[in-house]
């Protein structure tokens, strides 16, 4: 029968393994930092999808041979990769030096600061044109090669119209979450190259690798390629889309999602249960849902109000359909219509098709992480 002494000896062995593991992580970090330097010098993108896929596949196969859970190994590898991408952000390659200097209008806002920092890491001269710099706007814009508009949606028309003339060869770009109207504003203002971007992320990202940016053509798209190449160097995933189709997609992806989260957060705030009480008896999936709701309310109320208001008139039809679906579901519940509920479930399931299985597998990993991150109260 094992004794306490045996247990202590085993724990010492585990501690030794953990120490060795930390040493290996430090060694791996040093190697990935060297990789980052070489990529910067060679002008190579931070993200190499084929290399990543090959590495994951090889290590999973090795794990199976050694009777180690492949999912555990993949989780560790992906976390190390994320750390490597973060460490490689310090100095980045410059894909389009002809686009310097870069002027960011609204560059003191959170997203403006994010882009300014990334351009500076890539060696571009970056100038900020915000409220305090308005008296010097003409001078700041005089020799600009890239002007990025990073201002609230409801202010973009006024701000762009009031800008001094922009050099004809300069690339004019906006990063708002709506594209048709902002692009029209930019095209009316500037006779040179114009492109619309929508970064599908917020200012709190730790790195740009795999971050999606939607690209909508404006004018003289070939003159905007240097900017897109720079985004690729940073590791971003570019999705080219017509501005109208983009706005229609955002009505579902952003406006309806934010609206639903906004309403649910208000609903929770009116309940008799405290957040602590709800979290104490929550499943991992509900913990994750609470995180996503709480995430919205940790951010700018002005930003999310603008996003919802900007396309509200365009989503009224979607809202009516959503409300109708909700009421039909309530009616089935009131009538005890199990068969009707199953039919509705099957109809939605057919929309997700084979992706449903993939989402089930992916979400399982997220739920495990949410459960692992749970803070237990020992008091």
Automatic annotation (TrEMBL):
Keyword Transcription regulation: no
Coarse class of the protein's main subcellular location: cytoplasm
Signal peptide: none
Location in or out of the cell: Cytoplasm
Every Prephenate/arogenate dehydrogenase domain range: 100-363
Pfam families xref list: CM_2, PDH_C, PDH_N
Pathway(s) of this molecule: Amino-acid biosynthesis; L-tyrosine biosynthesis; (4-hydroxyphenyl)pyruvate from prephenate (NAD(+) route): step 1/1; Metabolic intermediate biosynthesis; prephenate biosynthesis; prephenate from chorismate: step 1/1
Keywords from the named record: Amino-acid biosynthesis, Aromatic amino acid biosynthesis, Cytoplasm, Isomerase, NAD, Oxidoreductase, Tyrosine biosynthesis
UniProt domain Chorismate mutase: residue ranges: 1-92
UniProt KW Membrane keyword: no
PANTHER family given in the database record: PREPHENATE DEHYDROGENASE (PTHR21363), PREPHENATE DEHYDROGENASE [NADP(+)] (PTHR21363:SF0)
Name of the featured protein: T-protein
Highest classification ranks of the organism: Bacteria, Pseudomonadati, Pseudomonadota, Gammaproteobacteria, Alteromonadales
Gene (name only): tyrA
């Amino acid at each position: 029968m094992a004794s306490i002494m045996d247990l202590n000896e085993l724990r010492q062995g585990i501690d030794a393994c953990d120490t060795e593991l930390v040493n290996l992580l430090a060694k791996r970090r040093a190697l990935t930092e060297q990789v980052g330097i070489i990529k910067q010098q060679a002008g190579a993108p931070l993200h190499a999808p084929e290399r990543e896929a090959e590495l994951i596949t090889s290590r999973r196969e090795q794990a199976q041979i050694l009777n180690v859970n492949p999912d555990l190994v993949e989780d560790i590898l992906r976390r190390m990769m994320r750390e490597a991408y973060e460490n490689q952000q310090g100095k980045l390659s410059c894909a389009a030096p002809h686009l310097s200097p870069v002027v960011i209008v609204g560059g003191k806002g959170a997203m403006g600061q994010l882009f300014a920092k990334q351009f500076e890491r890539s060696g571009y001269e970056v100038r900020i044109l915000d409220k305090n710099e308005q008296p010097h706007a003409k001078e700041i814009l005089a020799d600009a090669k890239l002007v990025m508009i990073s201002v609230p949606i409801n202010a973009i028309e006024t701000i762009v119209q009031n800008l001094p003339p922009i050099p004809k060869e300069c690339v004019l770009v906006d990063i708002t979450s709506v594209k048709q109207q902002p692009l029209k504003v930019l095209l009316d203002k500037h006779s040179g190259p114009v492109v619309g971007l929508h970064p599908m992320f917020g200012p709190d990202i730790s790195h740009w690798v795999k971050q999606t940016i939607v690209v909508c053509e404006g004018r003289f798209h070939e003159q905007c390629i240097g900017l897109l190449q720079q985004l690729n160097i940073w590791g971003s995933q570019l999705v080219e889309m017509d501005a109208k189709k983009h706005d229609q997609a955002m009505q579902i992806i952003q406006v309806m999602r934010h609206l639903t989260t906004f309403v649910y957060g208000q609903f929770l705030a009116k309940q008799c249960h405290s957040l602590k009480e709800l979290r104490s008896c929550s499943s991992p999936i509900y913990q994750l849902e609470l995180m996503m709701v709480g995430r919205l309310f940790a951010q700018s109320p002005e930003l999310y109000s603008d996003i919802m208001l900007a396309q509200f008139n365009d989503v009224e039809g979607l809202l009516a359909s959503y409300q109708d679906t909700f009421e039909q579901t309530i009616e089935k519940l009131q009538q005890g219509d199990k068969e009707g509920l199953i039919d509705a479930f099957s109809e939605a399931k057919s929309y997700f098709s084979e992706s449903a299985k993939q989402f089930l597998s992916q979400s399982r990993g997220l739920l495990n992480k949410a459960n692992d991150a749970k803070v237990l109260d020992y008091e």
